[in-house]
Design a protein that fits this description.
By secondary structure, this protein is mainly alpha-helical. The chain is built from 32 helices and 4 strands. Strands 1-2 form a two-stranded antiparallel sheet. Helix 13 packs antiparallel against helix 14. The protein is globular.
């Protein structure tokens, strides 16, 4: 099974000029804007730009290719495959298109067709790392072990430090029973990179099967550090801790899993078993009932609930549970023995003896002729089981059904697989490969209000309210945190509003308000250079336009981020030139926020956004000063407390971080609580 990670592919683009009203769309400009938006991972919006380019020049290959890439990121693999085919019809020499189509086909289970695409790409570029890697994984999925081994050998000969290649080959070798070879590959992958979660998971799985519990636990700990929000990892770590007799640790993991996913049936079932084992019967019953609420056919939970009710003296409830088992599985003998015990406790010895005889008869028939008289063995719905007892005989023992029916569940999907992502060019925000804490986003001007939330702050500032009250333009403008367009209808509406305001300003008599509205819409469409141009025009007409300074500062900052995301490999001279450009742009953003603050010293959102800017640049001292001023101006500003808290965390001041995050949680910033738990 192919698993996917967050996708980080970005491309170098030239910053686009604004799109103007004209009879003919400039396809190259629109394509460049779309590529820029794609690099910022706004896939729906980028598709709309590529649609415009295709409409203007349907004979170009690139718009189809980049639209395919956006669809790939949205996991629309069929659409990506179709667009790649259209792109190749127009230019069969663009090798990256074979890679995207092969990857899309691989994710649809069309592994043989994917291999054909990878082979086509390898004819043009025989040493391409990801053509070889994806091909080897596809061959693994096709059960062509010798072919896959050969492709991996070629890949790792050319790229001896490619950790994902070693991890994927380790998976292949484990599947083929070469445990020594698999462990050698996984050890090599981890020695190259300790950020490769699937290598830790696969090694933990192998170590668990070898009953090397301590080693498996260390690898599972490493996996959880890399992906602390993956609930199923805690379920599997609890299983390892249980086998090390660490009941407290196992219970802690189940509790935390259920904080992340309150309806995780594996965690509920296992926690119930542990509670049953330590005779916490009432809470065990609560957990089994919770499992049955979401999965009424989970007969493992039903059977164990019957046993718990038996021990609690709730005999009628126990009989009802066990009757449901025997109606569904009439040859499941442990249920009859359990019913016999319940009836004996109730004083009904006759019925108890009848049920005991039924159980004995099933076992005797099975022993006499297993093929003719098989015993019922209900499947486990919550996951797959691991035996909780050591046994010299590893073969299946049909008589030991009770032991298997009453054991912990592990989650197979959380064990190691080849995690395949389209990442041939991992550029730009490479920090996203590691688990990191995201600050609350900056505030922008938008035609879209912020969604309702638990937060106590209303996004009000005087100058914007006055602008809206005076009805300078037909659209209401809001201040919102990271509100971007979503959905095709909303995006098309924004394009229509942009056309309207571009028509308004085209006659040369537009007001500052018209340019502001145009700039806000262009910002929402992520055409930042054109937005900045509109805000420049607004400010030139009204140098005291506080709202325009706020809007231009945000657009300039977003444009810096877009340029960083879109930057490809650079030589030293080009990198130095871009760095100088970034310093100049940074100063311009700060100047705009300072002008907004000069015009309105109590503009808390300008202080907050400026703090975000400094945080992103790594200037934590300046960031703390800005967030502190925001909190001083608005003591109920939860986002400012949260961002100040993670800033303190970055400089190692956990005491202040804890206080700020606690306050942020109180004010409705829910990620604070998860972060506080991780800090503890």
């Amino acid at each position: 099974m192919i698993m996917r990670l967050p996708l980080l592919l970005v491309f170098m683009v030239a910053m686009a000029a604004p799109v103007r009203v004209s009879a003919q769309i400039n396809a190259e400009q629109v394509l460049n804007i779309g590529r820029n938006v794609l690099s910022m991972e706004d896939y729906m919006l980028s598709i709309q730009y590529f649609n415009q380019a295709i409409k203007a020049k349907p004979y170009l290959s690139d718009p189809y290719f980049f639209r395919a890439l956006a669809k790939l990121y949205l996991e629309d693999y069929k659409g990506a495959e179709e667009d790649c085919t259209l792109a190749l019809d127009r230019n069969k020499f663009k090798t990256e298109t074979y890679k995207v189509r092969g990857f899309a086909r691989q994710n649809m289970g069309k592994d043989s067709l994917a291999v054909e695409d990878y082979d086509a790409g390898l004819r043009y570029n025989p040493e391409d790392k990801y053509f070889l890697f994806y091909k080897a994984v596809a061959q693994t999925e096709m059960k062509k072990a010798k072919d896959a081994e050969s492709t991996f050998a070629r890949l790792l000969r050319i790229y001896p430090n490619f950790e994902e290649g070693y991890a994927a080959r380790g998976r292949l070798r484990a599947a083929e029973g070469d445990i020594v070879g698999a462990l050698a590959d996984l050890d090599k992958a981890i020695s190259i990179s300790r950020n490769l979660i699937n290598a830790f998971l696969m090694r933990a799985q192998i170590e668990s099967e070898q009953k090397r519990w301590e080693a498996a636990l260390q690898d599972m700990d490493a996996a959880i550090r890399l992906q602390p929000q993956e609930a199923d990892l805690y379920v599997n770590r609890a299983y390892l801790r249980y086998n090390l007799d660490d009941y407290f640790g196992a219970m802690s993991d189940y509790n935390y899993t259920l904080e992340l996913e309150p309806y995780n049936s594996a965690a509920l079932f296992n926690r119930a078993l542990l509670r049953y084992e330590v005779k916490d019967l009432n809470r065990a019953a609560d957990d089994f009932n919770a499992v049955l609420k979401y999965d009424p056919d989970n007969f493992h939970a039903r059977y164990n609930l019957g046993l718990v009710n038996m021990e609690r003296g709730r005999h009628k409830e126990a009989i009802a549970d066990l009757d449901k088992i025997t109606r569904k599985y009439p040859r499941f003998y442990p249920a009859y023995y359990a019913k016999a015990e319940v009836f004996r406790d109730m004083g009904d010895m006759r019925t108890a003896m009848q049920n005991a005889h039924t159980g004995d008869d099933l076992v005797k028939r099975y022993v006499a002729n297993p093929e003719k008289n098989p015993l019922d063995r209900p499947a486990i719905a919550a996951g797959k089981t691991r035996s909780t007892r050591d046994s010299a005989d590893e073969e299946e023992n049909e008589i030991d059904v009770m032991n298997r029916f009453n054991q912990l569940v592990t989650v197979g999907e959380a064990t190691g697989q080849t995690q395949l992502s389209y990442n041939e060019k991992i550029k730009g925000r490479v920090q996203d490969r590691d688990i990191r804490v995201e600050p609350e986003p900056a505030y922008m001007l938008s035609l879209k209000d912020s969604p309702l939330s638990l937060r106590s702050t209303s996004n009000y500032f005087r100058e914007l309210d006055d602008f809206n009250q005076r009805n300078y333009v037909t659209d209401h403008i809001y201040l919102s945190a990271g509100a971007s367009a979503s959905g095709e209808a909303e995006i098309q509406n924004l394009f229509g509003r942009a056309d309207y305001y571009e028509g308004v300003v085209a006659d040369g008599h537009a007001r500052a308000a018209d340019y502001l509205a145009l700039g806000v819409i262009r910002t929402m469409l992520k055409n930042y250079p054109a937005a900045i141009e509109a805000f420049d025009a607004a400010i030139s007409r009204d140098p005291g336009f506080t709202v325009a300074y706020m809007a231009r500062a945000y657009a300039r900052h977003a444009n810096m981020q877009a340029q960083s995301a879109a930057a490809d490999d650079e030589d030293a001279a080009a990198a130095a030139l871009r760095q100088r450009g970034s310093q100049r742009e940074l100063a311009e953003v700060v100047a705009d926020y300072d002008n907004a603050i000069r015009l309105n010293p109590r503009l808390v959102y300008a202080w907050f956004n400026k703090g975000n800017l400094y945080y992103e640049m790594g200037d934590y001292t300046s960031a703390l000063q800005c967030f502190a001023e925001a909190v001083r101006l608005d003591p109920a500003f939860g986002s400012a407390y949260f961002n100040r808290g993670i800033t303190y965390l970055n400089i190692g001041n956990k005491r202040q971080a804890f206080a700020d995050l606690s306050k942020a949680g109180e004010l409705g910033i829910l990620p604070s609580y998860n972060l506080l738990k991780r800090m503890k």
